Model the fold of this input.
Amino acid sequence: MDISKKDIPETLYNDAVVDYLAERYHTSPRRVIDRFIQQREDTDNATTAPFHLETNEMELLRSLTKYYRQNSDKIHPNEPQI
Done:
């Protein structure tokens, strides 16, 4: 399944897991999500990117994306999600 920025709920950028990954890779939450999208689309470029998300991190981001998309009407965009 292809995914683009328009498919990413805005609330995902404020999620604690995304913040943790951003700190881990010394980057911003937006770049973590950008990398998530790139890695899903192009595995050949994975070695030349500034960082590489691990398989379990990709699965977490897939699950969070699905959760936020399914529950977008129940989640306030400015509340940190835990």
Q: What stands out?
A: The chain has a mean pLDDT of 83. Residues 16 and 82 are 6 Å apart (CA to CA). Residues 55-70 form the longest helix (16 residues).
